[in-house]
Write a structure and sequence with these properties.
3 domains, TATA-Binding Protein, Endonuclease Iii, domain 2, DNA-binding, Endonuclease III, domain 1, two-stranded antiparallel sheet
Length: about 290
DNA sequence: ATCCAGGGCGGGT
DNA sequence: ACCCGCCCTGGA
C-alpha cells in the first residue's frame, strides 16, 4: 500500500454523479466538495474533477494507473455505445444525454456477489450500512489522511462469521444466504477464478445461480458489474417501471413478466443491453 | 400503523 | 412454466 496520485486530461464520458449514482456500487461516498471517496479491492481512492480532467488519489496496493484504467473501464469507448443506442429511439437519446457520464465499473467479483445478495428486497442506505459493518467487522483496516477505512472482507475473512454473527450485523433473512454462499466459494464448489476467465455468458449465469441468494436479477448485476457482461440486463423495480412505461405499456405494471422485459431489451438493445439498462435506470430514478 | 425497498426461496398449481 | 406468501429491518 502506498500513496499515489494520477491526473488524466480530457477524459470523455466521465461524470462522478453519473458513475457513482447509477446503482452499480455501494462503497463510494460523496464528499462536501463534490468529490467521491471509495473503498475498492486494492485500497482507498478519491476521485475529483477539474473541468474535463479527472484527479485520482489514494492509498493503493499496485500501480494507480493500471488500477484506475481497469476499474473505471477507461479502455472502452462509451461514445460508440451512445451512437448505437441513440439510434434506438428518442427515449434512449434522452436518457443518454441525461446520464452522459456513466461508465460501468469493473468491480471485484466476490464483493459483487455478496453485495447483491444483500440487496435483495432491501434499500440502498441499508445495503450500504450492512456492507460497511461487515467490512469493519472482519475486513482489513486502511488508514488514509487520519481516517480509518475497511476493505471488503475476503472469502476467508467473511467465513469467520457465523449465521448469528451475520444476523447481528443487520443482514436479516439474508444471513443464511451469505453464510452458505461464503461456504460454497470457500470450498471451491464454485470457482470464481474460472468464472472470471469464462466467455460463455449463459454458463456463467448457470454457475452463479447455484449460489444461495443469487437469483436472476442478482446474477445479472454480478455479471454486468464484475464480469463486463454487457449483454446482461438486470431487472429491478425501476427498470421494470421504465421499460413498461416506455415500451411495453401494460396497464398493470406488476403484471409485466420478466420474460417480456428481457425480450424487449434483447430486441431493442441487443448485446449492449446492460449499458442501456444503466442509462435507463439512472434516468428513471431521477425523473419518475 | 402499514408499507415498502434495486429479490429469492419453497411450496403450491 | 408460472404463481404466491413469506422473509429481517428501519425509515417514511
Amino acid at each position: 500500500m502506498k500513496e499515489q496520485k494520477l491526473i488524466l486530461k480530457n477524459v470523455d464520458c466521465f461524470e462522478l454523479d453519473h458513475i457513482f449514482d447509477c446503482g452499480q456500487c455501494f462503497r463510494w461516498n460523496k464528499q462536501e466538495d463534490g468529490s467521491y471517496i471509495g473503498v475498492i479491492g486494492s485500497g482507498v481512492l478519491k476521485v475529483s474533477k477539474n473541468k474535463n480532467d479527472v484527479i485520482f488519489e489514494g492509498i493503493l496496493s499496485g500501480d494507480i494507473n493500471s488500477i484506475v484504467y481497469e476499474y473505471f473501464d477507461l479502455e472502452t469507448d462509451y461514445n460508440q455505445f451512445k451512437d448505437v443506442l441513440s439510434e434506438v429511439d428518442d427515449n434512449m437519446k434522452k436518457s443518454i444525454v441525461f446520464g452522459s457520464g456513466i461508465r460501468i465499473l469493473n468491480q471485484d467479483l466476490w464483493e459483487m456477489i455478496i453485495s447483491f445478495i444483500i440487496s435483495a428486497n432491501n434499500n440502498i442506505p441499508r445495503i450500504k450500512g450492512i456492507i460497511d459493518r461487515l467490512s469493519k467487522k472482519v475486513g482489513k483496516m486502511v488508514e488514509w489522511n487520519g481516517v480509518e477505512y475497511y476493505l471488503f472482507p475476503t472469502v476467508e475473512e467473511l467465513s469467520k462469521l457465523s449465521v448469528s454473527d451475520l444476523r447481528a450485523l443487520g443482514t436479516g433473512f439474508r444471513d443464511k444466504r451469505i453464510y452458505n454462499t461464503t461456504q460454497m466459494v470457500l470450498k471451491k464448489e464454485i470457482d470464481l477464478e474460472k468464472l472470471e476467465r469464462s466467455n460463455d455468458t449463459e454458463k456463467i449465469r448457470e454457475e452463479l445461480l447455484k449460489l444461495d441468494g443469487v437469483g436472476e436479477k442478482v446474477a445479472d448485476c454480478i455479471m454486468l458489474f464484475a464480469l463486463k457482461r454487457f449483454d446482461a440486463f438486470p431487472i429491478d423495480v425501476w427498470v421494470r417501471r421504465v421499460m413498461n412505461t416506455l415500451y411495453i405499456h401494460n396497464e398493470d405494471e406488476t403484471k409485466v413478466s420478466k420474460k417480456d422485459i428481457k425480450e424487449a431489451a434483447n430486441n431493442l438493445f441487443g448485446d449492449i443491453q446492460g449499458i442501456a439498462q444503466q442509462y435507463l435506470f439512472y434516468w428513471a430514478r431521477s425523473n419518475f
